[in-house]
């Protein structure tokens, strides 16, 4: 496979370049235990994470961390002390490293906590990222980065000012099947890419914070449509320069009083590649992408869930069928391993805050085109 400097520059901007270079491993060698400048023992050989918000995604992240060689759970932040106590016992987190949302800022004094993992509803990402940065902690923040562009900019500025790293948890950037699709495209295996289709959606239950505009920022585009948006960018290695979108609400059952039910959007990239994407909260839409090239196609379905990913392709007449046997929580293991490596070695994360900011700026354009206020 031939790589040009331009390919790497583009992929670097997309946050995936290092993962295509076989010599770079998401799992860094263990950091040596030592003594910090103030004479106290340093955190040790592993990056210690305080998990903020002990909900569904945190329950995948924490077992993923446990599988790494360079990361560990050293703190918990929760409004439910009983739940935190249970999880603390499971992960060996001491009682004095359990925080509430009120005393959260005291993590500044906890030397076992190097970083936080923000696993809260979208509207809380900015506040807790900025408070963590002010406490001197590195930040791994869930997607979508925030609910608007201004919040993303404030998060980036706060982490820069505090000299801490900020990574957005785009786990597909560290996932082998997605990386294999990028590799096939860059190698020219399917010729010039012409078009991409992608979708991701599900039938949402009533009562979810995801249905509150204030908590979520918007509907399925913020939550799952963002996977298709981000995939089109890393698959093409380009940034869209034209966007057109439509949205709708079909089910008048009270769930969609604040956020939209469906969004369909089209993007045109500078090379001329066109992408059509859909997202919904009104029915099951298996997360997939299909890339059409001049000499073949790549179909990854499913592409965005935690396990069972499957790549099929036709590369100029040569069929490829690659089911991925990796099981959950391997994607979270790779993601945490990468961020800990960055923290320990001083390199920049492959999906930094700027990557989350770009997606929020495109989400804003999609909403504007669809006539949705943001
Ligand atoms: N990367 C991924 O694959 C992935 C998957 C799911 C969710 N996410 C993201 O992770 C974040 C959390 O999503 P989730 O599915 O774990 O949500 P969740 O509702 O399961 O968990 C949210 C947590 O935040 C806590 N919380 C604190 N204050 C709250 C408040 N005011 N209202 C509601 N909850 C509050 C809840 O108690 C809960 O522990 C979201 O930003 C979401 O987009 C990412």
Structural overview:
With 374 residues, the chain is an alpha/beta fold. The protein folds into 2 domains: 21-171, NAD(P)-binding Rossmann-like Domain (Rossmann fold, 3-Layer(aba) Sandwich); 172-325 and 354-370, 2-Layer Sandwich (Dihydrodipicolinate Reductase, domain 2). Helix content is 33%, strand content 23%. It has helices spanning 5-14, 17-20, 58-67, 81-91, 125-134, 149-162, 176-186, 213-216, 220-236, 330-345, 353-370; strands at 47-52, 71-77, 98-99, 115-118, 138-141, 166-168, 193-203, 242-248, 262-268, 274-280, 282-293, 296-300, 310-315, 318-323. The strands form 2 sheets. The protein has an 8-stranded mixed beta sheet, with helices on one face. The protein has a 6-stranded parallel beta sheet with strand order 3-2-1-4-5-6, with helices on both faces. A hairpin with a 2-residue loop joins β13 and β14 (318-323). α5 packs parallel to α6 (149-162) and α9 crosses α11 (353-370). The longest helix has 18 residues, at 353-370. The radius of gyration is 21 Å and the shape is globular. It binds nicotinamide-adenine-dinucleotide (NAD). Nicotinamide-adenine-dinucleotide binds next to loops.
